[in-house]
Amino acid sequence: MTQRTILAARSLLLCLAAASALNAQEMSPAPAASLRQGVQATLDAYREHAAAGRWDALIALYDDNPHFRWVESGVVVSRSVGRIHEHLGELPAGTRIETTFQDAEIMPLAPGVAEVVTAFQTRVVDAKGGGYSFGGVMTLVLVQRGGGWKILSGHASSSTRRSPSPRADD
Questions:
Q1: What is the CA radius of gyration of the chain?
Q2: For the chain, first and last CA: distance in Å?
Q3: Looking at residue 111, what DSSP letter applies?
Q4: Residue 12's CB: how many other CB atoms inside 10 A?
Q5: Domains parsed from the chain with CATH numbers
Q6: How would you classify the pairing of strands 148-158 and 69-72?
Q7: pLDDT tens figures, 102-111
């Protein structure tokens, strides 16, 4: 990661923190509750589509925007929604991704912008019931678009290394 990228990321985080502090005070309870409800619906849809292996529906939850980024444990793994789609297309047929979110905190940053901080646990399951699992903490920035709430950026840090999951028939 270049020094320029690090400085840009720090600047963005400072702006988001300032916007969050300002808008948390200014946003009335009803719009904040509506925002949280919409974001929660997107998280629920994400979980359902991934668990069913509905990749096109899952991809529709991401904001196909030049500013899209996905970071995992300190590495930018995607700079486009297209790359996420390619990755999902590379999975063997019948693969499912089961993710649970624990204690998701949905914070309004500004009208139409929210941050989610949540613990997560993910299990990638192949067609035969085998796979692997991992978990940790995830942060997301979602933006409201005409079609609903979309994931603009995300970061996942795993607290443990991936470990094999037992097969369903064992």
A1: 17
A2: 43
A3: T
A4: 13
A5: 3-165 (3.10.450.50)
A6: parallel
A7: 999 999 999 8
